[in-house]
Amino acid sequence: MRRPVWLICLLGLVVAASAAEVPRYRVGVCDWMILKRQKLGAFQLAKEIGADGVEVDMGGLGDRPTFDSKLGDPVVRGQFLGKARELGLAVSSIAMSGFYAQSFAEREGVDRMVQDAIDTAKAMGVSVLFLPLGVQGDLVKRPELRPAVIERLKAAGRQAEAAGVVIGVETALDAVDESALLDEIGSPAVKSYFNFANALQSGRDVCAELRTLGKDRIVQIHASNRDGVWLQNDPQVDLPKIKVTLDDLRWSGWLVIERSRDTTRTGAKDVTFNYGANTAYLKQVFQSE
Hints:
The protein is of the alpha/beta class. It has helices spanning 5-21, 41-49, 74-87, 110-123, 146-163, 175-185, 196-200, 206-213, 239-249, 271-286; strands at residues 25-30, 53-57, 90-95, 128-132, 166-170, 190-195, 218-222, 253-257.
């Protein structure tokens, strides 16, 4: 049955309006970096900063069998999701930042930790998880860990595939080696969580790295550098050029701010002051159209 022209037009307007509601690039902040690790107040602060959403952390690890997370409680999850809806914000991703300091390749019980994070993401309607290999899992300094990392990421990939989510892995490898790592893992549920800082602090070209990885290997981006200056004042960061690169790749997704705090200006310890400036600049470059 043919639909009337007025209905086709109306449906087109609805689709266009829905697409317009979500920008191609969204800007988020890490809850642990704005000093609100797994705290409800992260959303209000993110709103004041001007962000579109929050990367919510699973909490610390220490010697625990899994993350120190309150989000397994449906009541707490409901509070987080309700606050996000109230403020018009999203949860960009669920982070396993505990692996910055712990060895994903060597720590016992990582399958449970990963599953707990996946279950949390699913319960919160979040499709991306962040997994840093960190200092203990630096494959440049500790290449002997590569077989264990691959084996464990293959297992994590199976867990993620079963849940319909994607794990974004941050490594210290350059784009060529990281691409090879991801290809060897061979899971559509394990991709790169690209970090500007890793490339810049190793003297690599961010745009070249992004092009080498390609659109399909990059699930999310930490769009910041080391502390010292804001992104707009950082001589290492050519944000307009990075946007051109991502546009060329036809990539879209979340740009999440970790660092890039100005440590020289009055109020440099003020989270809103620093993250507000970086958020505003990212939006100026990536959402100005």
